[in-house]
Structures are given as C-alpha cells and as structure tokens.
Amino acid sequence: MGRRRRRRARVVEPGDPAAVPVTRVTVTAAAAAASAADAATWVERVSGDPTARVAEVSSATQLVNRALGALRAGAADPLVQDVGATRALAIRIGYGSGEELAAGTWSAARQLPPPRRGRLDDVDSQTRVAAVLAGRDSVSPAETLLLRARLDLAAGRSREAALQLPDVARGLLAEGSGRDAAEREALESLLPELDDAARGALAGELAPEQAESVRRGAELARALTAPR
After folding, report:
1. Per residue in 48-59, is it b (16+ CB within 10 Å) or e — as a string?
2. Phi/psi zone of residue 3: left (φ > 0), alpha (ψ -120 to 50 degrees), beta?
C-alpha cells in the first residue's frame, strides 16, 4: 500500500499572473418561447430597456443565490457566498435550444452593459479599510449583522433578515451609531415592529406589514452607519 505524496509549495517567478478558472452560470426561463422570432423580439426588447434589464438580471441573480443558499446549507459550508451582478465579468441575455443552454451556449445573445457602481462608494470603502487596518476605526458586530441582513433582503430572504434586524437595531443604538437624533429615534420606535416581524419569521412567512417594517428598519440602520 503506497503512501500519498505530500503536496509541496513550489517556487514561482515574477511575471504575468496565471490564468484563473471562471464559473459560467446559465439561468433559463420556466416557460419556453413560442418561436425563435418571439425569443429574438424578447431579447431586443429587454436588452434595449434599462428597467427591463435590471428586472431580468435581478430575478436571475436571486435564483442563483437561492441555489447557492441550498448548497451552503447542504454542504454546511458558510464560505459558500452569494453572488452579485456587479461582480460578474459579463452578463448576457439570449435564447437557445435546451441542448445549447445545458452546454452553456446559445443561438443568439446580447451582452448587457455592466451595472453601474458609484465611484464615491469605492473611495469611501478604501478609506474605511485603511482606518480599520491602522486601528483608527473598527467594524462593529451590529454593522456586520446589518450587512448580512441587507444581503438577505436583496436575495429575497426576508425571514432571515427579520430575525437579524432587532439585534442590529439594538446593537447600533447601544453603540451610539449615527449623528442624526431623528434617525435614532425612528429606529428605536420601530423596535416593537421589528420584534413582531422576528416572531412572525419564526412562525412562517411574513405578513406584508411585517415585511415593510423589516425593509424600513434596514433603511434606518443603514442611514445610521452611512459615512457623513
């Protein structure tokens, strides 16, 4: 019975970075188009309409993240991460046969313009990173939970967000986050509704008014943590 060879680190020389693998994901519609002409018309309409593009990309991204959430739970691996459209190298919308789509190809497609990202957000992020690494700032537990709750809301996981928002709100209020007294008072007054939404999330799907309270709580909490 042979021994397994030990994997060793190898010497690398400076130069161009090596190629890295890229994952391609195909999301198909539940209903097939009546004809290739109808599919082509749909592609033209959606690709030329910014609002329709956002709706289609958001819907597809939510479906991918539902699958990743199931994979994360099934593998018991918290490092399986959600994806966002702004991180994609390319986003295409098109149509093809079942065999083509299963193989990751298509009959015809359009590559969509990348989603816009605010330059100011990028600058602020770098400033925050530098401050944290230098010890002039820190990331609070409530802020970390808020980011997770916002991600859950964006992915359509309102129950998960509802379970986190009461702790987020209480944490931010205890830390004295935010300079706007009105925003702090609004978040504090919303706490009973957030608690009610959390209880509702444990029982099942949220009622519309509970979902609205969660959305409002996330907005207020985000306002308290936003740079001034």
Report:
1. eeeeebeebbee
2. beta
